[in-house]
Amino acid sequence: MTDNALMSARGLKHIWYPCTQMKDHETLPLVPIKSGKGVWLEDFEGNQYIDAVSSWWVNLFGHANPSINEAIKQQLGQLEHVILSGFTHEPVIQLAEQLVEITPKGLTKCFFADNGSSAVEVALKMSFHYFLNIGQIKKTKFVTLDNAYHGETLGALAVSGVELYKKTYGPLLLEPLRVPSPDCYTRGDDSWEAHSRKMFKHMEATITDNHEEICAVILEPLVQCAGSMRMYHPIYLTLLRQLCDEYNVHLIADEVAVGFGRTGTLFACEQADITPDYLCLSKGITGGYLPLSVVLTTDTIYQGFYDNYASLKAFLHSHSYTGNPLACAAALATLSLFKSDNTIEKNKHLSQLMYNSVAELVDHPNVAEIRQTGMILAIEMVANKSTRQPFAWQERRGRKVFEHGLKNKALLRPLGNVVYMMPPYIITPEEIQHLGKVAIEGIDLAVQNS
Ligand SMILES: *Cc1c(COP(=O)(O)O)cnc(C)c1O
Questions:
Q1: Distance 117 CA to ligand 1 centre (A)
Q2: How far is the CA of 226 from the centre of ligand 1 (A)?
Q3: From the CB of 130, is ligand 1 less than 6 Å away?
Q4: Residues 342-368: pLDDT tens digits?
Q5: pLDDT digits (tens, 9 = 90+) for 6-37
Q6: Residue nearest to atom 15 of ligand 1 (CA)
Q7: Does residue 124 sit in the same domain as residue 51?
Q8: How many angstroms does the Cα of residue 114 sit away from the middle of ligand 1?
Q9: E strand or H helix at 280
Q10: Which atom of ligand 1 is nearest to the CA of 258?
Q11: What Å distances lie between residue 38 and 213, 378, 423, CA to CA?
């Protein structure tokens, strides 16, 4: 057996992999990764792959980034972990100070957790609990968008809308009020803005009819990433903020995936010039190094819990690794890279290059559209361009693109029939060019016999 095959066999013996039908690995080998540097991953036989999906959207400044490595090493010599209840430490203090500084105005309190789903759970519980604490006991419901994704734990799954992940567990889940997504794929001849405005009518109706029972609306600002990178216009967020204010409903912005520059601004909410009541951050926060998440909220909400102990109004929620110092050190190094590298500005050019690299697919008979928001670019493969008839999911065309990528130095892992790039920000123009070429070839192969 080759080195890769050996490692792959061992890797299948005792590990049950996430988000995987394990039987698939009878025909599709695992890719064992030995090392990473920059955008490149390397397997046990020296084959290299450009990490076009940022290792599930977490990596921002490349693998083995020298300054993040150094920050973690420094912190390791100082303090690896400490309980964050009754105790605190410098990295978490500094990180909270900087997060308050860089996030939308009015978010002044940081509640830390250790992954994206937990951050969503925190925001949901906090919103319900806030209204309970101030005596609004009828508020027990959440509003969520079709095609949303907020994580896999039961609470987060309940407010998600991607049926593939959710349907099976239906009987276990609390039931939110569902609203059609402003997703602009279905806009027809309308502009993104016109379509997003039109779709807002559904949200308006749901909130005006049910506001007395609604704690919060939760949504992913601008891009529904796990929902096949479907995108919408910032006007939807602007209108939603106004509506929530009018009806005393909280707005939870789940920027777990889109935060930290993915949409072209540091946070997606900036593009609508809004401040949510809760901002959930994770994934890129540590540059893709260590698990960490945080929910930022307002002083108003914080004050709703602030009382004598005996009032039992405290938010009694915690996770073991909350605010881990090594993760906070990685996050601080990541934030300082945004400044020293002038990342947001530089990404404008890279995002243009990303589009250029696949622009010729606009006329492809099996590409319905190429859509892009900042550093997220997605290509929707369809069976029929004019009717937008999708390929049957059973045909698994995306998997063919994936396999073609692996043979050609690219880790492109499609979502169903949607091929996308969401690369680390240190990617070079040549590497983008290469990804574009592999994506085009992969799509040409994948749509054969259609
Ligand atoms: C990934 C993701 C989550 C869940 O984060 P985990 O760290 O995987 O639990 C929540 N919301 C959004 C928008 C995500 O993309």
A1: 5
A2: 9
A3: no
A4: 999 999 999 999 999 999 999 999 999
A5: 999 999 999 999 999 999 999 988 999 999 99
A6: 257
A7: no
A8: 11
A9: strand 278-281
A10: 13
A11: 48, 22, 11
Same domain, 321 and 364: no
Residue 22 lies in a domain: no
Cα 115 to averaged position of ligand 1 atoms, centre (Å): 7
Structurally, the chain folds into a number of domains equal to: 2
**Ligand 1: distance of its center to the CA of 256 in Å?**
6
Please state, for a pLDDT cut of 90, what percent of the chain lies above it: 97
Residue range 380-389: mean pLDDT, rounded: 96
Q: Looking at residue 215, which CATH number applies to its domain? A: 3.40.640.10
399-434 tens-digit pLDDT: 999 999 999 999 999 999 999 999 999 999 999 999
**Could you tell me the CATH number of the domain that includes residue 387?**
3.90.1150.10
Angle (CA) 404 408 411, round 5°:
75
Task: Out of 325, 340, 355, pick the residue that ends a domain.
Answer: 340
Q: Please tell me if the CB atom of residue 254 comes closer than 6 angstroms to any atom of ligand 1.
A: yes
Amino acid type, 270: E
Q: Are residues 395 and 295 in the same domain?
A: no
**Among 49, 46, 28, 29, which Cα is nearest to 38's?**
49
**Token pair 């704690």 is at which residue?**
215
The pLDDT value given to residue 38: 98
Ligand 1, closest atom to CA 156?
Answer: 10
Ligand 1 contact, 319 CB (< 6 A): no
What domain range includes position 135? 69-340
What is the number of the ligand 1 atom nearest to the C-alpha of 291?
7
Residue nearest to ligand 1 atom 5, measured at CA: 116
Q: Choose one of 120, 145, 322, 373 to mutate for the ligand 1 pocket test, by most ligand atoms within 8 angstroms of C-beta.
A: 120
Q: Which of 107, 108, 119, 111 is CA-nearest to residue 85?
A: 111
Both 415 and 352 in one domain: the answer is yes
- Complete edge-to-edge strand list for the sheet that includes strand 278-281: 107-113, 293-298, 278-281, 250-254, 214-219, 141-145, 177-179
Residue 20 belongs to a domain: no
3-state secondary structure of 136: coil
Residue 370 pLDDT level (bands cut at 50, 70, 90): very high
Boundary-marking domain end, from 282, 310, 340:
340
* Per-residue model confidence (pLDDT) at position 29: 87
- In a domain? residue 96: yes
Q: Do 230 and 350 lie in a common domain?
A: no
Cβ–ligand 1 contact at 257 (below 6 Å): yes
DSSP lists the bridge partners of residue 33 as 43
